[in-house]
Amino acid sequence: MRIYLDCFPCFVRQALDAARFATDDEEVHTTVVQSVLRLAARTDTHNPPPVIGQQVHRLIRQITGKEDPYREQKRRSNELALRLYSEMKQDVDEAPNPLEAAVRLAIAGNILDFGVNSSLEFCHAENVIGAALNEEFDSSELSAFVSVINQARDILYLGDNAGEIVFDRLLIEKLPREKVTFVVKGSPVINDATMEDAEIAGLTDLVDVITNGSDGPGTILETCSPQFRERFGRADLIIAKGQANYESLSSVNKPIFFILKAKCPVIARDLDCEIGKMILRRNKYLGTRFIAREKEKADAKL
Amino acid sequence: MRIYLDCFPCFVRQALDAARFATDDEEVHTTVVQSVLRLAARTDTHNPPPVIGQQVHRLIRQITGKEDPYREQKRRSNELALRLYSEMKQDVDEAPNPLEAAVRLAIAGNILDFGVNSSLEFCHAENVIGAALNEEFDSSELSAFVSVINQARDILYLGDNAGEIVFDRLLIEKLPREKVTFVVKGSPVINDATMEDAEIAGLTDLVDVITNGSDGPGTILETCSPQFRERFGRADLIIAKGQANYESLSSVNKPIFFILKAKCPVIARDLDCEIGKMILRRNKYLGTRFIAREKEKADAKL
Fold first, then answer.
1. Confidence class of residue B173 from pLDDT cuts 50, 70 and 90?
2. Which of A130, A255, B123, B177 is deepest in the core (most CB within 10 A)?
3. Cβ contacts (< 8 Å) between A9 and chain B: which residues?
4. What angle, 0 to 180 degrees and rounded to 10, lies between the N-to-C axes of helices B164-172 and B98-112?
5. pTM, entire model
6. Taking 60 as the threshold, does the pLDDT of residue B115 lie above it?
């Protein structure tokens, strides 16, 4: 998905937030905002939003001298998510369709956007979880999701934010774990999960966890390590979590399932859905392949 | 009030909105956004926000070739406000305190921000009006407002947006009209009211209406005409309507009453109030003078 012009006010807002997380020095905040405005002015709008996100957050690290401005937010997010984990696990196990409940909770984790929403409280998180379990959800993709997971041999689960990955753990626990490799960022960017967060979330004890070698949000393949790109090419199913992964991979020709909440009008427009919708959706490539395979099966039965 | 860094995302958002009002050409939208990003990057943050607003909207007019991108929105705002007028006038006349009701409705007009909110509907406007008439409102300033109006000989009422000025008319009808001069912009900027709007709103039949000779939002005195500056200097009471007038005049050493809704966190912080509060407030200059005069009166009674 390419950058929409509506993304620019958000880049500036996010840069200011990051600068404030990094330091209390208002002169540094001003330098960050002015530098990001200049950077944004010369951005190629044919790129997906995470490409400029990567440049913006490199610039912020360089100006503030802080390698990981969101470190404290990530720590708090992980902590809060882990406090919620046991109860959520019970919700999943007791649900009529545990896989659907786990998908719903993985989306709840994306809704919360831990760490960015710095005033996030336990009771608010509980409300969001309750709503995600009961909210209307187009689960028509669920049977396709189950089917491609069963057929896949090698599944890459691309993580999103710290804290949120505790919610992903609930879903991964319902998948055939031996097939799943979980992916985190190569180094800190915004509040995205890194290897440290995967360890805290308990994911490293559950499945293989690798890094994508990149400091960009989402999965900007050109800036990922050669090892990761090779691994990505080999996987026969990608589960891509969150908005930035959708933004960076929506046009990539691989079998991908996207799981996210359409939090902003730009994403909602691109997904052709209402703002706020919980989304489980296969990409076009997978859609075409899935339909062809279903047809094959039907033909074989004749 | 100086620019806060939080204003920058809004400038970019507003520039994009204006570009879209002006033309459907997406290449022009891109040029506008990129030019405004560059302009914003070199802005002196010691200026009040309307100063950059003025530069931004000059740039937009220059790039799009449209002298008045909000023309159609302003027309619709005036039309909608005039449809609401009779009922509101009745509300004012039947209120226990008609002046307070008129102030509340003048603020309702500011809440609606006609023309910017392009999807504004009649029933939504009616809801806002009902809420403004009943919402909690710190009316402690009201007696001071009445007192300075009675003492003033020459009142300048600085208007804000098209449509909104129909709501101002309700308040002006409760003021000693012979003292009041209403002020509109010298030429179009955003959806701010110009002489044409004052005529449509029926203000020109009610009081003297003059222009400030400027194409800036609010009242940036340095860019107003010498005639207006002289007039401003002569007035012994200024009633300044809306956020941009507050932003541009909050530090000016003249007797000013501000009337607005604190719509954004930056303004709310500067006013030291919650977001969304309805504000009737004298400035510091007037506050000091008012207290001194009350003391004089009290001393005279002794």
1. very high
2. A255
3. 9-10, 12-13, 16
4. 170
5. 0.86
6. no
* Confidence at residue B293, expressed as pLDDT on a 0 to 100 scale: 72
What band does B138 get if pLDDT is binned at 50, 70 and 90? confident
Interface test with A, best of B37, B63, B119 (most A CBs within 10 A): B37
Q: pLDDT per residue over A4-56, tens digit each?
A: 999 999 999 999 999 998 999 999 999 999 999 999 999 998 999 999 999 99
DSSP code per residue over B180-214: EEEEE-SS--TTB--HHHHHHTT-TTTSEEEE-S-
The verdict on a CB contact (< 8 Å) between A5 and B30 is yes
Residue A89 has pLDDT above 70, yes or no: yes
> Which residues from B are below 8 Å from A35, CB to CB?
41
Interchain contact, B9 vs A10, CB within 8 Å: yes
Element (H, E) at A141: none
Q: Smallest Cβ distance to A37: which of B8, B26, B29? A: B8
Distance from CA of A120 to the nearest CA of B (A): 19
Residues of chain B with CATH 3.40.50.10880: 71-291
The CATH superfamily holding the domain A71-291 is: Uncharacterised protein PF01937, DUF89, domain 3 (3.40.50.10880)
Tell me how many degrees the CA angle A260-A265-A270 measures, rounded to the nearest 5.
65
Q: In what order do the strands lie in the sheet with B180-184?
A: B208-211, B180-184, B155-158, B237-241, B256-261, B278-282
Write down how long chain A is: 302
ipTM of the complex: 0.83
* Domain limits, CATH 1.10.8, in chain B: 7-64
* Residue in B closest to A6 by C-alpha: B13
What's the pLDDT band for A157 if we cut at 50, 70, 90?
A: very high
A276 near B CB under 8 A: no
The rounded distance, in Å, linking the Cα atoms of A75 and A81 is 10
Mutate to test the interface with A, among B27, B30, B33 (most CBs of A within 10 A): B33
B127 touches chain A (CB under 8 A): no
Establish if B292 touches chain A: CB-CB under 8 angstroms: no
| Architecture in CATH for domain A7-64 | Orthogonal Bundle (1.10)
A41: which chain B residues are within 8 Å (Cβ-Cβ)? 34-35, 37-38, 41
Closest partner residue to B29 among A5, A13, A37, by Cβ?
A5
pLDDT at A297: 76
pLDDT in tens, A108-154: 998 877 545 545 577 788 888 888 999 888 888 899 999 999 999 99
- Mean pLDDT (chain B) is 92
Q: Provide the shortest C-alpha distance from residue B240 to chain A (in Å).
A: 29
Query: Chain A residue closest to B6 (CA)?
Result: A13
Within 8 A of A33 by CB-CB distance, chain B residues are 5, 8
Cα dihedral sign, B149-B155-B160-B163: positive
The three-state secondary structure class of B82 is: helix
Indicate the residue of B5, B30, B42 with minimum beta-carbon distance to A30.
B5
Structure confidence by residue, pLDDT tens digits, B39-66: 999 999 899 999 999 999 999 999 999 9
Q: Which residue has the tokens 């001298």?
A: A65
Mean pLDDT, residues A179-202: 97
